[in-house]
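tool=predict chain=A
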Amino acid sequence: MNTTDTPPESSELSLVWRALGDPTRRRLLDVLRIGPHNTTALCDEVDGMTRHGVLNHLKVLEGAGLIRVEASGRERINHLNATPLQQIYERWLHPFERLWAGRLFGLAHAAESDHEREPDMAPTPPNPAVRVIDIVQEQSSSAPAARVWDTLVNRTGTWWTQPYLAPESLGVTLTLEPGGTLWDAREDGGYAVGVVRGYTTDKELILDGDFGIPGALHGRLVVTLTETGPTSTTIRFEHTVLGAIEPGAADGHELGWGDLLRRLCAAAA
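tool=predict ok
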């Protein structure tokens, strides 16, 4: 069963987030930011990928509304459409503009007055830039997709354990419904680690959440199950995060996702 409970605008932005989550698609958008390109020229910009692969990425970008395509004779001319990016800016970044304006003013002031500093005064460290971080982990499980799915959503607390919980945590549970939560229970309450945005039973789970990455404004975790045999399933974790994230801050989370994935495989076996 495929379940979602998002208004049209949120659903459209969800497609944009997924499209932006792939580095190849972001590379194509960078090229189109310079100006329109035909499909052949875009294929030349992506090393080590077949034309078919590039066309699939372009189809995703077009479906998310990030590009528009017009025919010119036998050619397809691809144009960047910045409107969805503007919507993301207004939804996620504009509310923080005042905060960043203050920080940028402080940075500019520090730079302008740097030459006036005493020799023993260290310069003010710059604030991190807003960036997108991609974390991808994949592993094969010796269990059918149905069993992996059951372990993923119904027995989350058997593999999502310490040290990936606070000492005071009583464990995590997942409520699989539109807007349901991955809930970290505490004696006097709890916290939503992630929010269910959609799922397809035995195949895909989508959660929104930063999962503790400092400076993150928005994040999305996509868990994909691909059954490769009667008793084998490939599990893929894709966590895409947008925010003022320090370089290297995601390294520990990448290792953590890999370890959680191994624990999930072991629990499902």
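Residues 134 and 240 are 5 Å apart (CA to CA). The chain has two domains: 2-81, 130-268.
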